[in-house]
């Protein structure tokens, strides 16, 4: 229980950082292009983790039970997981940064949170399990997305669709992390590898598709530092460690709160405003996210009640 609480707190901190990072990402686009911004912040996230890994190794050497890094941690799984996560993170972050140039930070946060709905849908396709509650949540989320993004002429913004694609890749990211965490991988090292993998891919794209300017990068330094150190280096690492300490249901529910913090930070810092229709869409998306995460505990409770009633009869 204590380990689960630690994991939940880590994930909550990560959600707060991610939510407020939408503001930094939106502001950073005033100075540099998406690949340039992402390359700088992602590589910075990897660099930040190097001394962290060194400190963890020193602590592990002093006290074998202090760290959550087992001797059985497989180097092969750690490196493989880091590279795969890096490719997925590259796709997700690139789409997110591109899409945020065409929509608001608040809307981007809520659309990104749809990865919580996409995860069970992917599981549905892979494992062929059909659940009525999943389809109900998908319907609610779809209505919420329509209210949030569809304009009066029944068209959806390009930026909103791009962010939706980003949500799909973040859903894959969560599932891959869960898979490799079960392999007793070195969480922090895997996080570091994923940042350097994604950062290298973004740097290549930066030189191919953009014309990076060092003076522009310097102008965006504060947003890059926040996104690189806090959102990339710290928050994604907290996600990996937190997911290892708690159950997937609690993890995804807590991480979905980034959408709430994104709207709040966009309203407080960027003075963004939403219409009643858009706010209604946000509420429906959030309701779908909550329901999809409590479906398993609820079904287990109803099943236990049914069994108890049967025994009494």
Principal-axes geometry comes out as globular
H-E order:
HHHHHHHHHHHHH
Proportion of strand residues: under 5%
* Assembly form of the protein: single chain
Estimate nothing, just give the exact number of structural domains: 1
What is the structural class?
A: mainly alpha
Extended strand count: 0
Rg from alpha-carbon coordinates: 20 Å
Description:
There is one protein chain. The chain is 81% helix and 0% strand. The chain is mainly alpha-helical. The chain has one domain (2-312). α1 crosses α4 and α3 (75-99) packs antiparallel against α7. The longest helix has 37 residues, at 276-312. The chain starts with a helix and ends with a helix.
Topology, element by element:
Elements: H1 2-28, H2 34-62, H3 75-99, H4 105-112, H5 115-127, H6 132-149, H7 158-181, H8 187-209, H9 214-219, H10 221-245, H11 248-255, H12 258-268, H13 276-312
Short description:
The protein is mainly alpha-helical. It has 13 helices and no strands.
Please give a handful of descriptors for the protein shown.
single chain, 313 residues, mainly alpha, 13 helices, 0% strand, disordered C terminus
């Amino acid at each position: 229980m204590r380990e689960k609480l630690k994991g939940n707190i880590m994930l909550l901190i990560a959600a707060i950082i991610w939510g407020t990072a939408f503001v930094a990402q939106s502001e950073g686009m005033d100075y540099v292009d998406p690949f340039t911004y992402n390359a700088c912040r992602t590589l910075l996230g990897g660099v930040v983790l190097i001394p962290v890994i060194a400190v963890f190794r020193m602590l592990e050497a002093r006290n074998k039970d202090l760290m959550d890094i087992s001797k059985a941690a497989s180097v092969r799984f750690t490196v493989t997981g880091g590279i795969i996560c890096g490719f997925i993170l590259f796709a997700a972050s690139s789409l997110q940064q591109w899409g945020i140039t065409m929509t608001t930070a608040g809307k981007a946060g809520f659309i990104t949170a749809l990865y919580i709905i996409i995860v069970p849908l992917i599981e549905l396709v892979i494992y062929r399990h059909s659940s009525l509650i999943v389809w109900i949540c998908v319907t609610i989320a779809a209505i919420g997305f329509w209210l949030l993004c569809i304009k009066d002429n029944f068209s959806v913004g390009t930026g909103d669709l791009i962010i939706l694609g980003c949500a799909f890749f973040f859903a894959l990211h969560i599932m891959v992390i869960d898979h490799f965490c079960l392999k007793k991988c070195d969480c922090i090292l895997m996080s570091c590898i994923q940042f350097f993998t994604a950062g290298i891919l973004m740097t290549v794209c930066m030189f191919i598709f953009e014309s990076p300017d060092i003076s522009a990068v310097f102008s965006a330094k504060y947003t890059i530092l926040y996104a690189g150190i806090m959102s990339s280096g710290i928050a994604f690492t907290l996600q990996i460690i937190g997911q290892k300490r708690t159950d997937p249901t609690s993890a995804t529910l807590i991480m979905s709160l980034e959408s709430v913090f994104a709207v709040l930070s966009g309203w407080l810092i960027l003075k963004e405003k939403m219409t009643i229709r858009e706010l209604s869409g946000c509420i429906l998306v959030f309701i779908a996210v909550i329901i999809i995460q409590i479906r398993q505990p609820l079904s287990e409770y109803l099943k236990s009640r049914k069994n108890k009633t049967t025994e009494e009869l």
